[in-house]
Amino acid sequence: MTETPDRRRVSEIARSLNQYEWRPTTDEVACGAEFFQMVKGLEEAERSDFPRDASAKPWPLRLRTENVVVLAEEVAMLREEFLPGWRTRLPDGSPMAELIDLYVRGAQPVLRQAEAVRAAWEGAVLPEPAGDEIARHVRYSGAPTDEVTARLRFETAARWEEGPDRRSLWEAMEPAWNYLGGVRSTMMAAVTGDVEY
Question: What DSSP state is assigned to residue 129?
Fold first, then answer.
């Protein structure tokens, strides 16, 4: 993975947290906690236009396409509402505010593709599961019909996402998703105080 100034900065903030050089203020902890609450709400929201596999425990499986759409919603909310509201409450040079800025910037490679991803999804024609296939799965698994139907829809959509043109897109986005995970891990450590990793 290529080292960039933003990746280096996230590492520096994580190191300063780990070495107790950055001791998050009460407001920084509250900001981070609210960030995670907002993100969780967006990620768990039901979107009827995307199938999910609710049989996967403990969390339903979501399509990569839905993840891209959700990330676009997160970044819009962070830019338009969240950060403007928190900037006045956080100290100047707050590492928490900087982490959120780094998160927004790090999402850009995914967001540049978001409109095309959404358009491809809306243009996809995916077959509905056949009645006999649903019945066979219900008999085999003992799961309710609606759960089986949802899982089969999800599996059809997941196969569509694995087509060659889509697979190369996900691979191109992978470094950005990994980076965002690193930013979120650092923010979570600041919120929980679990910094000895």
Answer: P
DSSP codes of every residue in 170-193 = HHHHHHHHHHHHHHHHHHHHHHH-
pTM of the predicted model as reported, rounded to 2 decimal places:
0.89
Angstrom distance (rounded) from CA 67 to CA 125: 20
pLDDT tens figures, 134-168: 999 999 999 899 999 999 999 999 999 999 889 99
Are 28 and 34 in contact by the 8 Å Cβ rule? The answer is no
Of 83, 111, 90, the C-alpha closest to 180 is 111
**Longest Cα separation, the chain:** 63
Residue among 193, 38, 30 nearest 97 (CA): 30
Length of the chain: 197
